Automatic annotation (TrEMBL), chain A:
GO terms for molecular function: ABC-type amino acid transporter activity; ATP binding; ATP hydrolysis activity. The keyword Nucleotide-binding applies. It is found in: Cell membrane. GO terms for cellular component: plasma membrane. Belongs to the ABC transporter superfamily. Keywords: Amino-acid transport, ATP-binding, Cell membrane, Membrane, Nucleotide-binding, Transport. It is a peripheral membrane protein. Residues 6-251 form the ABC transporter domain. The gene is ehuA. It comes from Oryzicola mucosus. SMART domains: AAA. This is Ectoine/hydroxyectoine ABC transporter ATP-binding protein EhuA. It comes from the Bacteria. Coiled coil: none annotated.
TrEMBL record, chain B:
Belongs to the binding-protein-dependent transport system permease family. HisMQ subfamily. GO terms for biological process: amino acid transport. Residues 19-207 form the ABC transmembrane type-1 domain. PROSITE patterns: ABC_TM1. The keyword Cell membrane applies. Keywords: Amino-acid transport, Cell membrane, Membrane, Transmembrane, Transmembrane helix, Transport. GO terms for cellular component: ATP-binding cassette (ABC) transporter complex. It comes from Oryzicola mucosus. It is a multi-pass membrane protein. The chain crosses the membrane at residues 20-42, 54-75, 81-99, 189-210. It comes from the Bacteria. This is Ectoine/hydroxyectoine ABC transporter permease subunit EhuD. It is found in: Cell inner membrane; Cell membrane. Pfam families: BPD_transp_1 (PF00528).
Length: 261, 219
């Protein structure tokens, strides 16, 4: 039996008095495509941010490929991970943000080559060759010399995806990657995600409000509410026949708000 | 009292020597202030609380005391503990430290203006803290603050006459010595004002250009 690539065990996280996650446990299998849905404040984005080490956990454990993310072995026990351990673990994970977060002072291709050159010591020529392949895949090779300010939101997001892929992560986290886009630009980004799905064997976690896309794309859908997984299942069951009342209410509301399923 | 052009030409070479020193002190002081300011701004963000507090306290202390007092201290008091500095070096250190505490605030604001997402993207790219600063944060923070930094350097330039108090032979000091030698004040002191005005005007034109060039950020 294959081991889960991500194993989350009873993690908790609060921001001040607000408990975002409360003893949450979940597992993700290698190559699995997971859609995390739920109302805002339900903790789904926080999970991605915790996996990317942008937020620390208050309690619990996370293992990536069997190795602890926030802890490391020492003298037979586990201690809090130091920066070196976190750096090593981060190599396995890439993230794409809602607001793209491209480096605005660098050209498109420099955005993509920066991390491989700095963190993996890849030579410029090799990094640029690989970057052009990735930009080609996301349909942005013609804009390689452009600055981010000259791009549309959809184009920026496609570059951001190429930037994350350049480090060859095993797990990709997509945090509402189409939420900040004008409606007509959503499609081009979703098409890139489809392509990734077909052409790579990365594990992908997707926080999204695009229910139609979540339905077609995901192997498994998790519905979050108030820091807990209320319901999970295959997309077909989840969207056509949700069992929990909270899931039904959420889906009804989001359809009423104009999101297609 | 009459304006004497012959006297003006007679003292001009001496005053120009003074102008050179004034400009030199301003340039060196600016470089030092830029470096010290960055050091203070970074130090105050250190995860080491004691270091951050200590640097913050020293910066507030320097900003809260007059530059003239600091110059006296550096030039006349430090020799008591064996630190003997030439007037110009003492003056440059005084200017650099004092204005460094002001430029630190410019750096702080510039760094705060870089969106949080940039820090997060740097982390997602697995950059080290050092790489994040040098490749991502500072290259975005510094260009928009160049006009504000330049403003402080112009202000510093106009405070260089204080260096005459510690015997630096800058413009004001040269003018005073000619004036005291010939008992004529109107020409030397008027010329000091004229020199400062002329250089300030040039600097302001340069500043406008810098604002135009770097003042806007494209995201």
């Amino acid at each position: 039996m294959t081991e889960p690539i991500i194993k989350i065990d009873a993690i908790s996280k609060s921001f001040g008095n607000f408990q975002v996650l409360d003893g949450l446990s979940m597992q993700v299998m290698p190559r699995e495509k997971l859609a995390l849905i739920g109302p805002s404040g339900s903790g789904k984005t926080t999970i991605l941010r915790i996996l990317m080490t942008l937020e620390r956990i208050d309690a619990g454990h996370i293992a990536i490929e069997g190795e602890q993310l926030y802890h490391m072995p020492k003298n037979g026990g586990l201690v809090a991970a130091d920066e070196r351990h976190l750096t090593k673990m981060r190599q396995k994970i890439g993230m794409v943000f809602q607001l793209f977060n491209l480096f605005p002072h660098m050209s498109v291709i420099d955005n993509v080559t920066l991390a491989p050159m700095l963190t993996k010591g890849v030579a410029r020529a090799a990094a640029e060759k690989r970057a052009m392949e990735l930009l080609d895949m996301v349909g942005m090779s013609e804009k390689a010399k452009a600055m981010p300010a000259q791009l549309s939101g959809g184009q920026k997001q496609r570059v951001a995806i190429a930037r994350a892929l350049a480090l060859q992560p095993k797990i990709m986290l997509f945090d509402e990657v189409t939420s900040a886009l004008d409606p007509e630009l959503v499609e081009e980004v979703l098409n890139v995600l489809w392509k990734l799905c077909a052409e790579t064997d990365m594990t992908m976690l997707l926080v999204t409000h695009e229910m139609g896309f979540a339905h077609d794309f995901a192997d498994r859908v998790l519905f979050f509410d108030r820091g807990k997984i209320v319901e999970e299942g295959k997309p077909d069951e989840m969207f056509s026949n949700p069992k929990q009342e909270r899931t039904q209410t959420f889906l009804r509301k989001i359809i009423a708000a104009g999101h297609r399923v | 009292m009459e304006w004497d052009w012959n006297f003006v030409w007679q003292i001009m070479p001496t005053l120009i020597e003074g102008v050179k020193i004034t400009i030199l002190a301003t340039l060196l002081g600016s470089v030092l202030a830029a470096v010290v300011g960055l050091g203070i701004a970074l130090g105050r963000r250190s995860p080491n609380r004691i270091l951050a507090r200590g640097i913050g306290f020293v910066a507030e202390f320097i900003r809260g005391t007059p530059l003239l007092v600091q110059l006296y201290f550096i030039f006349y008091v430090l020799p008591d503990i064996g630190i003997l500095l030439s007037p110009l070096v003492a003056g440059v250190i005084g200017l650099g430290l004092h204005y460094g505490t002001y430029t630190a605030e410019v750096y702080r604001a510039g760094i705060d203006n870089v969106p949080r997402g940039q820090w997060e993207a740097a982390k997602a790219c697995n950059l080290s803290a050092r790489q994040t600063w040098t490749r991502v944060i500072l290259p975005q923070a510094i260009p928009p603050m160049i006009p504000a930094l330049a403003n402080y350097f112009i202000a510093m330039f106009k405070e260089t006459p204080l260096l005459s108090a510690i015997t630096v032979l800058e413009l004001m000091n040269q003018a005073k010595s000619v004036a005291n030698t010939y008992y004529r004040y109107i020409e030397p002191i008027t010329l000091v004002g004229a020199f400062f005005l002329a250089i300030s005007l040039v600097a302001v034109v340069l500043l406008r250009w810098l604002e135009h060039r770097y003042g806007r950020v494209e995201r």
